[in-house]
Design brief:
The structure holds two protein chains of two kinds. Chain A is of the alpha/beta class. Chain A is globular. Chain A starts with a strand and ends with a helix. Chain A has helices at residues 34-42, 73-77, 91-105, 120-132, 150-165, 177-183, 206-214, 270-278, 300-306, 315-319, 326-331, 343-354, 370-382, 400-415, 427-433, 456-463, and strands at residues 2-5, 8-12, 23-28, 58-61, 84-85, 88-89, 138-142, 169-174, 186-191, 194-200, 230-242, 245-256, 258-263, 284-289, 292-293, 308-311, 388-392, 419-424, 436-441, 444-450. Chain B has 13 helices and no strands. The chains are: A alpha/beta, B mainly alpha.
Chain lengths: 467, 340
């Protein structure tokens, strides 16, 4: 199979075979062509060359949910396939169909709930149900566990294994190698649009796959130097709400030269915490920053001026202007202090320090891969002497090499005396980087662990709301 | 999001041209006129003589001011469709003040122009303020303020601010000192035309080369990212709308002092609305808007000749203009569906 987008050969002569009843993992760095391959297999993208043969229906579950929030579960699941009664939709039959589908696959969801009110894990079930209603013989899953909690991931794969046992061919596109090893039977590794390795999962290791994905050794993270953190941020009874995200009376400190990790499942108050620190939303309680009290009605501009930088969770919406060049994006947030003539130098510095590709300040950011976009967001936050860095999911959806680079730069900033608040849904990331871990559940801090006392099981239980 | 409004490359320009000639031809055929006769009457009317060329440039100027204003608002993510009302009130302020306060030319002309810009700016700032303060939708607010502007101007010019020497719904004739000088003798083309061109270049410089322009474009392109970069979205919306209204109001003032020499409630055949098409076809870029304004200026001035000579109703021009707006806006809807 071949497919070219502009100058990029996204998929370059790939052969792939899925067998009924198998879980086949497709791994590769961002931009390796996995998603394009999945889209070709689904029929959403036409290949320039090559053919696809499928025995039956092909289903695809997207990484970013394609659900209509304002509609009910059954309306989403049966969209365009609604059971009819004359000119109208047979609502009782529709409801029953969704309910029985849920029972059959162990994916229980109330058919009448509005999708917008559902937590992420349940939305995923709805997404899956919608594809299952078409009775696919081939099911493609694009980064299916990106937004799930550890316990949800386990139950998700139980469902998937169940489906495979019924004879469905399943392909999981992922970058989480632990899941590949735990749940797949075969692995195909892609790099630069080509298949570079195929394995029986039982005969390989995560380390080997990682090397093949990167095309060499995975760069080790920067060393965390020993240092005694100086007081920087002192939050007492911090209370805030941002949309549905609520934070209750959080009390914590972040020292200069310290990475504090916030471990928690998405939707437990992290957004309110990040937005309150960014100055996007007002807060209650007190927030002392370098000895002075921050005001609850400060603007983001005042926080930036004070030395607070935020890496927002959603780089496409909250961090970047996609139609702009790297140069113009590099200055965003510092436009009041950075002369126009220096934009280019700022962009070049980020490109250099973060190995952004292509190394062209004039490149349009929307055309870069997710990893390179994120490097710009992180690089920008670290330029101009930040004092406190709030990193909210700083490696979300980017490949191993880019993630390691971003994490190393965070550690280096810490070593240089920056206070870092690392909010992440990926426990491995927090364990690798943080000096201290705070566990957040339902908007409250429910546990604190120093780096050498980290207890994965205990943290997982606290995250799930078990005290 | 705002990029979706823009003309993307030659293909879109081609669509516009095909629309103008294709739909125009069909409309002419329906009016039992040969499209060849119709269009040749149109172009002859726009370029046939020096006077006609000058009149084409008058129409270009009248479209250019509101179109530039609309572009500023659109670039800031504010869909200002109230340029018509801003233009009318700007024209009224200019005409009334110019006739009311006699002054030498070097005071009178700047005074009249500034009055127009201020009135239009205030009228534009109202929906900007409502959006900044209460989150009110600016499309609805500007649309409604158009109606209010016409009624307000009519009320003022026939009621409390009536002037001796004005006809029905008119102010008195401006004194010579308050009239803009002609650029071409025996035409209505004045210094307003070069002024509009200079403003277009200045506007492009402001948008591309200043911190203010950078913040305005960021707010329009990616409001969430702009907010997190310390840009005050409310203030940007307010200022962009005030500038947008001021440009439209200035346009109204130039029509009054340069073309009609008095304010009349009917001074605009819809420049504020056609200006939307001009701004969109001009890719919201001030320099391309100058080119687009010329194109629509040809349609405007040629349309009158076409009606007189080829007996094609002038409304064909309105029809074509409307379709251009629908085509560009419709493409935006399609594109935004594809991306979400």
């Amino acid at each position: 199979m071949r497919r070219r987008f502009g100058a990029v050969q996204a998929v370059d002569g790939v052969d792939l075979e899925l067998l009924p009843g198998e879980i086949h993992a497709l791994v590769g760095e961002n931009g390796a062509g996995k998603s394009t391959l999945a889209a070709i297999a689904y029929g959403a993208v036409r290949p320039d060359e090559g053919t696809i043969e499928a025995n039956g229906v092909v289903g695809l579950v997207h990484q970013h949910f394609k659900l209509i929030d304002r509609l009910r579960v059954w309306e989403n699941v049966l969209l365009n396939r609604e059971p009819r009664k004359g000119w109208t939709i047979d609502v009782p039959a529709a409801r029953e169909r969704v309910r029985s589908l849920g029972t059959r696959y162990g994916l229980d969801v109330d058919p009448d709930v509005l999708v917008e009110t559902l937590p992420v894990g349940v939305k995923q079930r709805v997404e899956l149900l919608r594809e299952l209603d078409r009775e696919p013989t081939v099911l493609l899953l694009d980064e299916p566990t990106a937004a799930l909690a550890p316990s949800e991931i386990a139950s998700f794969f139980t469902t998937i294994q169940d489906l495979a046992a019924r004879g469905t061919a399943i392909m999981v596109v992922t970058h989480k190698l632990a899941e590949v090893i735990a749940y797949s039977q075969r692995v195909t590794v892609m790099r630069h649009g080509r298949v570079v390795a195929r394995h029986q999962t039982a005969e390989t290791t995560a380390a080997e796959i990682a090397r093949e994905m990167v095309g060499g050794e995975v760069p080790p993270l920067a060393e965390r130097e020993m240092r005694a953190p100086q007081p920087l941020l002192d939050a007492r009874g911090l209370t805030a709400h941002s949309g549905t995200s609520v934070l209750h009376e959080a009390t914590f400190t972040v020292g200069a030269g310290e990475i504090v990790g916030i471990a928690g499942v998405e939707g437990n108050g992290q957004s309110a915490l990040a937005d309150a620190l960014a100055g996007i939303i007002p807060f209650g309680g007190t927030l002392l920053f370098a000895g002075t009290a921050l005001r609850g009605d400060d603007s983001p501009a005042a926080r930036i001026k004070a030395g607070v930088r935020v890496i927002p969770q959603d780089r496409l919406r909250e961090a970047l202007v996609l139609d702009w060049s790297v140069r113009d994006n590099a200055a965003l947030g510092r436009q009041r202090t950075l002369p126009l003539a220096r934009f280019d130098a700022a962009a070049r510095e980020i490109i250099e320090r973060f190995d952004v590709r292509p190394p062209n300040p004039g490149a349009i950011v929307g055309a870069l891969s997710g990893g390179n976009q994120q490097k710009i967001v992180v690089g920008r936050a670290l330029l101009g002497a930040p004092r406190l860095l709030v990193a909210y999911q700083p490696t979300r959806g980017i490949d191993i090499g880019a993630a390691a680079l971003v994490q190393s730069r965070l550690i280096e900033a810490r070593n240089a005396g920056v206070g870092v608040l690392l909010i992440s849904f990926e426990l491995d990331e927090i364990f690798a980087c943080a000096d201290r871990v705070l566990v957040i559940s339902d908007g409250r801090f429910v546990g604190t662990f120093a780096h050498d006392e980290i207890d994965r099981g205990r943290i997982g239980a606290l995250m799930a709301g078990h005290a | 999001m705002n990029a979706l409004w823009r003309v993307r490359g030659l293909r879109d320009l081609l669509v516009v041209i095909v629309l103008v000639f294709g739909v125009g031809s069909i409309a002419m055929l329906l009016a039992h006129v040969s499209p060849i006769d119709g269009f040749s009457a149109l172009f002859d009317g726009a370029f046939g003589t020096w006077e006609e060329i000058a009149e084409t440039l008058v129409q270009t100027t009248n479209l250019l001011f509101p179109a530039l204003g609309i572009a500023v608002a659109f670039r800031a993510g504010m869909f200002n469709i109230g340029a018509e009302g801003q233009l009318i009130l700007g024209g009224f302020a200019a005409g009334w003040l110019g006739a009311q306060v006699p002054a030498p030319a070097w005071i009178a002309i700047p005074m009249v122009l500034i009055a127009g810009a201020l009135a239009g700016g205030v009228w534009g700032a109202i929906p900007g303020f409502l959006r900044a303060r209460f989150g009110a939708n600016e499309v609805i607010a500007t649309l409604m303020l158009n109606v209010i502007a016409v009624l307000l101007a009519t009320y003022l010019v026939t009621g409390p601010l009536i002037q001796a020497g004005g006809g029905a719904q008119e102010t008195a004739l401006l004194p010579k000192a308050a009239q803009l000088g002609d650029l071409v003798p025996d035409s209505r083309l004045t210094w307003a035309f070069p002024l509009a061109l200079v403003l277009a270049f200045a506007l492009r410089w402001v948008l591309q080369r200043t911190v203010f322009g950078y913040e305005l474009r960021a707010a329009g392109e990616a409001p969430e990212a702009a907010k997190r970069a310390g840009i005050d979205l409310g203030r940007t919306a307010l200022v962009a709308m005030a500038i947008s209204g001021a440009l439209a109001g200035l346009g109204g003032a130039t029509i009054v002092t340069g073309v009609l020499h008095r304010f009349n409630v009917g001074l605009s055949p819809g420049y504020g609305f056609i200006g939307i098409a001009v701004a969109l076809v001009g890719n919201l870029d001030p320099l391309w808007i100058c080119v687009a304004a010329l194109g629509f200026g040809i349609l405007q001035s040629g349309g009158i000749a076409m009606q007189a000579e080829a007996e094609v109703p002038k409304q064909v021009v309105s029809l074509v203009t409307g379709l251009v707006i629908i085509a560009l806006a419709g493409r935006r809807v399609v594109a935004s569906r594809r991306t979400t």
